[in-house]
Design goal:
The chain is mainly alpha-helical and 100 residues long. The chain has 3 helices and no strands. The N and C termini lie far apart (114 Å).
Length: 100
């Protein structure tokens, strides 16, 4: 067993680097590459999906907060009521003319 380690070259071509520009890929190599890329894509998709869910919830919470604050501030707004009251007072105090 110690003899194999001394040669410096492995017996099997495990994890051999291949340059597709120099030598064509076999069908088995192409299938393996696709399989590895698909597994990597699935792994990254899970990470992205969880990030997208968190981002979506954060944006949704922000929108609901703004929506709620808008309703709250509009319900407390008395500016239009005050303007209507001032208009009534101005109409009652103004002198009556033929146009009124």
């Amino acid at each position: 067993m110690a003899d194999k380690g001394l040669k410096g070259e492995p017996e099997a071509e495990f994890a051999k680097r291949i340059d597709p520009a120099k030598e064509p890929l076999t069908a088995e190599q192409i299938q393996f590459i696709r399989k590895v890329e698909l597994e990597r894509w699935k792994k990254n998709a899970l990470k992205l999906r969880s990030r997208n869910v968190v981002t979506g919830l954060a944006i949704g919470a922000l929108v609901m907060g703004i929506y709620g604050y808008t309703f709250y501030s509009v319900s407390q707004e008395r500016i239009m009521d005050e303007l209507d009251e001032e208009a009534k007072v101005a109409r009652t105090r103004a002198p009556k003319t033929a146009a009124n």
